[in-house]
Amino acid sequence: MANAIETKLNNAKDVARNFLIEDITEQCVGEYLGFEVEGENTLTHKFKCVDKAYFGWHWSVTLAAADNSSEVTVSEILLLPGEKAILAKPWVPWEQRVEPGDIGVGDVLPTAADDVRLVPGYTGVDDLFEEKLTPQGWEVGLGRFRVLSVPGKDETAIRWYDGDRGPRAAIAEAVTDKCVSCGFYVAISGSLGQSFGVCTNKFAADDGKVVALDHGCGGHSEIVVDLHSIPTGGMVFDDNNLDTTEVSDEEVVEAEVADIDEDDDDDTEVEDLDLSVDVIDESELEVSEEEN
Ligand code: SF4
Predict the structure, then answer these.
(1) pLDDT grade, residue 50 (50/70/90)?
(2) Ligand 1 neighbour 182 (Cβ under 6 A)
(3) Which of 31, 54, 76, 142 is most buried, taking the most CB atoms under 10 A from its CB?
């Protein structure tokens, strides 16, 4: 059951509206939406916000009174979102928004000191004596402060294997010959080398990229195609559709003159031929007969 102060505050909705209009422009204050008791001496009245930019929001005016005889005062005025309010998506820290492949030209992405993908590498002689290093920890740490951790390798292997250069890529499923038997496959060192290598076929889509052993493509080095088994058809001419060109009378005359000149040139060549071998010197013949 409402006490006297609560009743007093509840009846003060006009006071709340006046406070609101005084603080906000009247054009933004709409119908009364009800009240909510906040505590023994405080109560909040709600008014619809009719500003088009804040659809679904409401004004919240919290009133307070020390006792039944004291004056009602305003504690705070807020603009709050309702169920249908349009709100921005929840904030996500940038380090959680970065996705694989996001680093572009000129971008810098610092790696956290506690990144689980990395572990301290072998950087000093003392490390060798304080703790016995396993081959996995030692293998590539020389000269580097951190190297890939086991969880880092696991995560990498899963990402590569499930990606576009794993066995389930469309280009791999379309062929039977796999990278493991391809001459263009170059193995990589370390534990990741047990499942991955690098493609070196310049014609392949994955040239220069890490590929899984059971990845594959049509550029496999041992694929042989029997060219004689490929059926080919004869040459086909479409003489129903000829290309035509408009020619002017002048061009026709020029072409005819050119033909005539060409014929003349041919005659000249025939006349210019050396026919000396066919000339018979009759005087010499006569002399010969006299000699005989
Ligand atoms: S050419 Fe094809 S089959 Fe050979 S290594 Fe590259 S991706 Fe694998």
Answers:
(1) very high
(2) yes
(3) 54
Q: Could you tell me if 41 and 66 are in contact, meaning their C-beta atoms sit under 8 angstroms apart? A: yes
Q: Which residue, 25, 55, 59, is CA-closest to 44? A: 59
In 74-139, which ranges are continuous DSSP H helix? 94-97, 125-130, 135-138
CA of 162 to the centre of ligand 1 (A): 17
**Measured between alpha carbons, how far is 186 from 193 in angstroms, rounded to an integer?**
10
Quick: pLDDT tens for 127-152.
555 555 555 555 555 667 788 889 99
Domains parsed from the chain with CATH numbers: 4-81 (3.10.450), 152-212 (no CATH)
Q: Are the C-beta atoms of residues 177 and 216 closer than 8 Å to each other?
A: yes
- On the question of pLDDT at 203 being above 50, the answer is yes
Q: Are 173 and 185 in contact (CB under 8 A)?
A: no
Q: How many CB atoms lie within 10 A of CB 75?
A: 13
Residue nearest to atom 4 of ligand 1 (CA): 220
- Provide the token pair at 195: 């499942």
Query: ∠ CA 53-55-56 to the nearest 5 degrees?
Result: 145
Query: Which residue from 278, 163, 272 is spatially nearest to 211, judged by alpha carbons?
Result: 163
pLDDT in tens, 165-183: 999 999 999 999 999 999 9
Tokens at residue 3, please? Answer: 């006490």
Tokens of 287: 């002399």
pTM: 0.52
Alpha helix segments (H runs only) across 45-115: 94-97
Q: Which of 81, 20, 70, 18 is nearest to 42 (CA)?
A: 70
CA of residue 202 to ligand 1 center, whole Å: 10
